[in-house]
Write a structure and sequence with these properties.
Blueprint: E1 27-33, E2 36-39, H1 43-50, H2 56-61, H3 67-76, H4 88-100, H5 107-118, E3 126-127, E4 133-134, E5 139-151, E6 157-167, H6 207-221, E7 234-237, E8 242-247, E9 262-269, E10 274-280, E11 284-288, E12 294-299, E13 302-310, E14 315-329, E15 342-356, E16 361-377, E17 381-399, H7 400-413, H8 419-430, E18 434-449, E19 452-469, E20 472-491, E21 494-511, H9 521-527, H10 531-539, E22 542-550, E23 553-556, E24 559-560, E25 566-574, E26 582-590, E27 606-614, H11 618-626, H12 632-641, E28 645-655, E29 658-671, E30 679-691, H13 693-701, H14 706-722, E31 724-727, E32 733-741, E33 747-749, E34 752-753, H15 755-762
Antiparallel strand pairs: 1-4, 1-5, 2-3, 2-5, 5-6, 7-8, 8-9, 9-10, 10-13, 11-12, 12-14, 13-14, 14-15, 15-16, 16-17, 17-18, 18-19, 19-20, 20-21, 21-22, 21-23, 22-25, 23-24, 25-26, 26-27, 27-28, 28-29, 29-30, 30-32, 31-32, 32-33, 33-34
């Protein structure tokens, strides 16, 4: 089954004037436009799928679980993992653990199991044709922009238009007689069409109803809220329910009755503290901008929005909703013209849940999922699409007042010019709690967007979090991760394919109470640049960054990546608070295309670098540079004072005709002498290996000037004189040099003084 297929259910029908609701056991397919498939699998299996209760054990019970997954479940049982009872979230967790080595099993096979369930490969399909008989409660699969018509025994017809997976429930369908085509009379209209919905008299409401009323009034009065009501809310209250109704603004003149524009809110008490609620949106909604101007028309076929209301808090503690077959027309107000653009979304679901953890703290979960998102222009030309979008957030141990402020003020915080207000919010929100979020976008396809001819991303995921820093409640660690898979970019300047690209950055020890000090950063830079370090010292303990890219192919401008097979880079810095941090760099690439003006034999086939610098005197170095005192002896003295150390884990450059590698440690030390000034020395202990030095020298001679060639020959001759030479069976010659320095500052290679070599390099 295609990756584009997701679990979607659509129940759409047309009711024409007077109708008879006639139900029968069998119905005849009278017309089909497009391709439709039908499943005759057991209704129990289909119902379990609809209820979201499919797992490997259920599939095995119906004989739908392949043997390879049964064997996998048996293997994982040794880890006390019951794979047969696992849901999709648990299977995803097992995939991550397998990839990280926690579980010794094949992560690809677990991913195959996940896709087998998510993409409903266990369902058996057959083609539906005109004249076929259906009995109801079947599962149908519609291609895009497909519809069907079917008849009951009395000749009544019903039409279904959908795309994706559709559960046929004929008990809920209305059949219209083809001959009937009368307009709906005024008497048949809903009584809501006559409502002029005045403002509620709050003093006549109970405290519970008044709280609900004020909550919704506040929401609709929030700047930027996309819905607009006409004449306020009508509130009806009894001992068994509370109902609110409001007319939403409409900007078109057509045959629809005004009832379609009524927002309805139903509340049913559970006990003295909680109420169940349901939100019923009209089938057509006009969305608005912050100036309350209409920006487009939204329609959808089905909706379910429910939740639980807390009287104590004055807002919902739980909510969930599903909207299906959404269509948004951003230019629907163009008179006399067909809408030039349309956004289609097969399914949107959202959920939130708050659980009280202690007397003053709460845990909260939030999720937003959308599937099969498509943007069309004129002539139904698809220009952008997203297979799925998921956003999940989890907040632990937060104060309820902070979350309430977040819910009410988030539209003001985002993009607000006063960033101090935003950091004040962070301080209140996360002073005692943790927060995590994940945003995932799959199958992104963009064509003809500004300068981009085509952009495809198989998967994009970003994760982040704010966590408590050990036992220091006032400090937080922040982590952000970005991950791309199967990226393709085609534009005037680029034609690039990337199998994988990831970037992560982490900050530790951020003091949320002092973070607003950065708000005056610009002025501080102008007054005294060095004070910036003091600011960072106050709130930043360490920063870690990582970057990796794999499977890079193609070109960008004059850069050709066609031969670059693998590239990774990581960088980490720690200890900035003490201003003597450590810096770790790791870089690696394999494969490189032809470089302009560089001979093929000197184009590195691979390069590896592992480097660590410990105890770097950042403040003193910057001061020396700015004071124009950064000479060699001065820098050596600085490094000696802080006992800095450079460790080269590996520096390896591989050429087609040879190889150069270096490993070693360099450190500084202050040597006590009888002199007035102390003697600062550089201690070395390293190994240099050069493979096929003659071939390398010959190749470099072709691109150097005559004086440089003479120096190169002298250097090669000296290295060959003092190095240990080793000849391998294939003719490869490797020269080894063990470079070291003693307490007197003398530098030797294989026990021989290398001042001549240093002089050559100096010239």
């Amino acid at each position: 089954m295609s990756k584009k297929i997701f679990i979607l259910f659509f129940l759409a029908y047309i009711c024409i004037a007077h109708y008879n609701e006639l139900l029968a056991e069998n119905f005849t397919v009278s017309e089909i436009h497009g391709n439709i498939k039908i499943s005759f699998d057991p209704s129990e299996l289909i119902n379990l799928h609809i209820e979201g209760k499919i797992n490997p054990r259920v599939l095995m019970a119906f004989g739908k679980l392949p043997d390879k997954f049964v064997s996998l479940a048996t293997q994982l049982h040794s880890y006390d993992i019951d794979l047969l009872r696992a849901d999709i979230n648990q299977i995803e967790q097992y995939i991550d653990e397998a990839r990280s080595g926690i579980i010794d099993t094949d992560p690809d096979l677990l991913m195959e199991l996940k896709l087998y369930i998510v993409e409903m490969d266990y369902i058996s399909w057959s083609e539906l044709k005109k004249g076929d008989m259906i009995s109801g409660n079947e599962l149908l699969w519609f291609d895009e922009k497909t519809w069907m018509m079917f008849q009951n025994p009395d000749g009544g017809e019903s039409r279904i238009s959908s795309s994706g997976i559709f559960k046929l429930e004929t008990d809920n369908l209305a059949f219209a007689m083809p001959a009937e085509d009368e307009a709906v009379t005024d008497d048949a209209k809903d009584v809501d069409t006559a409502l002029k919905l005045p403002e509620a008299a709050v003093e006549d409401l109970s405290p519970r109803a008044a709280s609900v009323y004020e909550y919704w009034v506040d929401i609709f009065e929030t700047k930027g809220f996309p819905l607009e009501i006409v004449d306020g809310f009508l509130v009806e209250e009894t001992s068994e329910k509370i109902e609110l109704k409001a007319l939403l603004a409409d900007y078109t003149i057509d045959s629809k009755s005004e009832v379609n524009n009524v927002l309805k809110l139903h509340y049913k008490p559970i006990n003295d503290e909680l109420m169940d609620f349901k939100v019923q949106l009209p089938e057509r909604i006009w969305l608005h901008d912050e100036q309350e101007m209409p920006i487009g028309l939204l329609v959808f076929s089905e909706q379910t929005i429910t939740g639980t209301w807390s009287d104590e808090l004055g807002y919902p503690v739980k909510s969930e909703g599903i909207l299906t077959d959404l269509q948004f027309f951003p230019d629907a107000l163009l008179e006399g013209k067909k809408s030039l653009k349309m956004l289609n979304v097969d399914n949107i679901s959202f959920a939130s849940n708050m659980v009280q953890k202690s007397e003053s703290t709460w845990d909260s979960l939030g999720a937003f999922h959308a599937s099969n998102i498509k943007l069309f222009e004129a002539d139904d030309k698809k220009i952008q699409s997203i297979g799925f979008l998921k956003y999940d957030v989890k907040i632990d141990d937060h104060k309820i007042e902070a979350l309430s402020s977040f819910v009410q003020d988030i539209t003001h915080l985002v993009g607000h010019e006063d960033m101090g207000m935003f950091f004040k919010f962070l301080e209140e929100m996360f002073l005692e709690g943790d927060a995590r979020f994940t945003l995932t976008v799959g199958d992104l396809d963009v064509s003809e967007l500004e300068d981009i001819e085509r952009l495809n991303i198989g998967l994009f995921e970003t994760k982040g979090g704010i966590f408590r820093s050990d036992d220091r409640l006032e400090e937080r660690n922040v982590i952000l991760e970005y991950d791309f898979r199967d990226l393709m970019l085609l534009s005037d300047e680029a034609d690039v394919l990337i199998e994988g690209f990831s970037f992560e950055v982490g900050f530790s020890g951020i003091d949320v109470m002092k973070v607003d000090m950065l708000m005056n950063l610009e002025q501080l830079v102008q007054d005294n640049p060095l004070v910036i370090l003091d600011i960072f010292k106050e709130f930043l303990d360490g920063v870690n960054m990582g970057f990796s890219i794999t499977g890079l192919q193609g070109s960008h401008d004059d850069l050709d990546f066609s031969g670059l097979n693998d590239l990774s880079l990581s960088l980490s810095i720690s200890g900035l608070k003490q201003l003597i941090p450590s810096l770790v760099i790791n870089y690696k690439h394999a494969g490189l295309g032809i470089m302009d003006e560089v001979p093929a034999e000197l184009t590195p086939e691979n390069l590896s670098l592992g480097l660590k610098i410990s105890r770097i005197p950042v403040m003193e170095i910057i001061g020396s540079v700015m004071g124009a005192q950064a000479s060699g002896p001065v820098m050596l003295e600085l490094f000696s004072r802080y006992e800095s150390q450079l460790e080269i884990e590996l520096l390896d450059i591989g050429f087609p005709i040879g190889d150069v590698s270096l490993k070693g440690i360099a450190s500084t030390k202050e040597q006590d002498t009888s002199e007035i000034e102390p003697f600062h020395i550089l201690l070395l202990n390293s190994v240099l290996e050069i493979q096929n030095i003659d071939h390398l020298a010959e190749a470099f001679s072709k691109i150097l000037d005559t004086p440089e060639v003479e120096s190169l020959k002298a250097m090669v001759a000296f290295i060959k004189l003092i190095a240990e030479e080793q000849v391998y069976d294939d003719g490869t010659i490797v020269h080894h040099l063990k470079i070291a320095s003693d307490q007197q500052g003398e530098i030797t290679a294989n026990g021989k003084d290398i001042k001549p070599l240093i002089n050559i390099l100096g010239n």
